[in-house]
Amino acid sequence: MKKKSVRELILSGLSIAIGLLLPMIFHAFGLGSAFLPMHIPVLIAGFAVSLPFAVIVGVLTPLLSALLTGMPPLFPVLPFMIFELAAYGAVASLLYRKFRLNVYISLIASMIAGRIVSGMAVWVLAALFGAKLPGPAAFVAGSITGSIPGIVIQIVFIPALVIILDRNRLLRKEGLSGES
């Protein structure tokens, strides 16, 4: 296995582990839904690992959490969280690592893309599986207004951490041609 793959595998595993632990800590104090603790390590993984690894972190983190802790509930929350978090990781990795966009632009775009994808997943769950969920627009609006503290934490904390990691050469961006 290449050195890059081992590094990404380790970072992905660490991100998943943090994504399992942070929600348990926040939920112990009744702060889980408002502060979006699972989103933080998935977004950071998007900045730290390549696209395939970032998507895997976005998929496995809520899936393992649901299976090991019961959070999020298997239905209807888990399916749309998987798509939302996979989109977060994918867009952050693609924009920041591949296309070398600014950390803030990459973060905001990934947060918007994740919400749009979760809204689409909610529509599919309601239309095809009869899930009792609000319409996609109402769902996205509610998920934004109900999690403003978490969104603020993401916008303040994640770019600062990414900038620190980048300055210390702990992040490796890919070039437009795909080299790392």
Automatic annotation (TrEMBL):
Keyword check for Transmembrane helix: yes
An MF annotation (GO) of this entry: transmembrane transporter activity
InterPro entries linked to this entry: ECF_trnsprt_substrate-spec
Chain ranges passing through the membrane: 12-36, 43-68, 74-96, 103-131, 137-165
Keywords: Membrane, Transmembrane, Transmembrane helix
Record flagged with keyword Transmembrane: yes
Name of the protein described by the UniProt record: ECF transporter S component
